[in-house]
UniProtKB/TrEMBL annotation:
Catalyzes the specific phosphorylation of the 3-hydroxyl group of shikimic acid using ATP as a cosubstrate. GO terms for biological process: amino acid biosynthetic process; aromatic amino acid family biosynthetic process; chorismate biosynthetic process. Binds 1 Mg(2+) ion per subunit. Monomer. Pathway: Metabolic intermediate biosynthesis; chorismate biosynthesis; chorismate from D-erythrose 4-phosphate and phosphoenolpyruvate: step 5/7. Belongs to the shikimate kinase family. It comes from Qipengyuania pelagi. InterPro entries: P-loop_NTPase (IPR027417), Shikimate/glucono_kinase (IPR031322), Shikimate_kinase/TSH1 (IPR000623), Shikimate_kinase_CS (IPR023000). Residues 1-20 are annotated as: Disordered. This is Shikimate kinase. PANTHER family: SHIKIMATE KINASE, SHIKIMATE KINASE 1, CHLOROPLASTIC. It catalyses: shikimate + ATP = 3-phosphoshikimate + ADP + H(+). GO terms for molecular function: ATP binding; magnesium ion binding; shikimate kinase activity.
């Protein structure tokens, strides 16, 4: 879709209209949670643009602080070390000015991190079907948890293990393959209704 088509579509217009009122009313960070490949990083950045808020991706913050990629941190120090960094970064972000935060898929599974996000932020669970997750995560080889075996099987297991935690989020959005601005609009409308 071209830029001009997108900016004249009804959903893009309604995203802009409701983003103004939401930006004024919401004094909590919006925290996107959900499995790898669901679109937290991509949609989070666009949501922040629509709301004229800051955007932070937790994985990128950890990478910046460590001066290493997530894969390198897993390989050099192990997953427990990464999770510790993830816990610290989320705790710091939840104490800062309200913006949009994209977590890594495991952050909301930690009970303390989850409690903090639920207390200080508005947690939005982005969800989609397994086949879509498998296809999207296959595009880039940046996720160490998917390298140890069949990605489809690993993602199915993670979905099974983690869905009860994700379901505690304030808002649940089932995404599709439509344009990003549609997902952004649906998140804004859902938060508006939640407020
Ligand atoms: N609604 C969508 N439709 C099509 N592709 C998408 C959608 N959301 C995300 N993607 C693509 O899926 C891949 C993974 O998205 P990403 O934002 O990195 O997910 P996450 O941060 O949840 O792991 C990226 O290539 C991204 O462009
Ligand atoms: O689900 C997980 O445990 C992980 C998700 C990744 O982030 P995305 O969900 O943004 O891919 C990243 O934090 C790390 O590879 C572990
Ligand atoms: Mg991400």
């Amino acid at each position: 879709m071209t830029q001009s088509q997108s900016s004249h579509s009804p959903s893009a217009t309604s995203a802009r209209a409701s983003s103004g009122s939401l930006a004024a009313r919401l004094d909590r960070p919006i925290v996107l949670v959900g499995l790898m490949g669901v679109g937290k990083t991509t949609v989070g950045r666009r949501l922040a643009e629509a709301l004229k808020r800051s955007f932070v991706d937790v994985d990128h913050e950890i990478e910046r602080a460590a001066d290493r990629t997530v894969s390198e941190i897993f390989a050099t120090h192990g997953e427990a070390y990464f999770r510790e960094g993830e816990r610290r970064v989320v705790a710091r972000l939840m104490g800062e000015k309200a913006g949009v935060i994209a977590t890594g898929g495991g952050a909301f599974i930690d009970a303390d991190t989850r409690a903090l996000i639920l207390d200080k932020g508005v947690a939005v669970w982005l969800d989609c079907d397994l086949e879509t997750l498998v296809e999207r995560t296959s595009r880039r080889n940046t996720r160490p948890l998917l390298r140890g075996g069949d990605p489809a099987k690993i993602l199915a297991e993670l979905k099974e293990q983690r869905s009860d935690s994700y379901a505690q989020a304030h808002i649940h959005i089932v995404t599709d393959d439509g344009p990003h601005h549609r997902t952004v609009s649906r998140i804004i409308e859902a938060i508006d209704a939640w407020l």
